[in-house]
Design a protein that fits this description.
Strand content: 5-15%
Distance between the termini: 33 Å
Oligomer: single chain
Shape: elongated
Strand order of the largest sheet: 1-2
Mean pLDDT: 89
Number of strands: 2
Helix content: 25-40%
Number of helices: 2
Number of domains: 1
Low-confidence stretches: none
Order of helices and strands: EHEH
Structural class: alpha+beta
Radius of gyration: 15 Å
Length: about 70
């Protein structure tokens, strides 16, 4: 896949699968969602918050994480 793409976002099942993909891909692999982690969700949440608070810089927004 690394020959066709500059980066890969993997959204799928096991964490071990995305780690193996990252090991062999040859390009950056972003974890979009696995059974253990969802690290890119905060980026999407930050974008949504800035869209709903026009004119307010990201540094002035308050974030709270609730969950498992």
């Amino acid at each position: 896949l690394g020959r066709m793409f500059d980066g890969i976002e993997y959204r799928g099942s096991g964490q071990s699968v995305v780690e193996e993909l990252a090991e062999y891909a040859g390009v950056p692999v972003f974890n979009g969602l696995t059974d253990e982690w969802h690290p890119t969700q905060m980026l999407a949440d930050a974008l949504t918050m800035t869209e709903h608070a026009p004119g307010k810089p990201l540094e002035e927004l308050v974030f709270a994480y609730l969950g498992d």
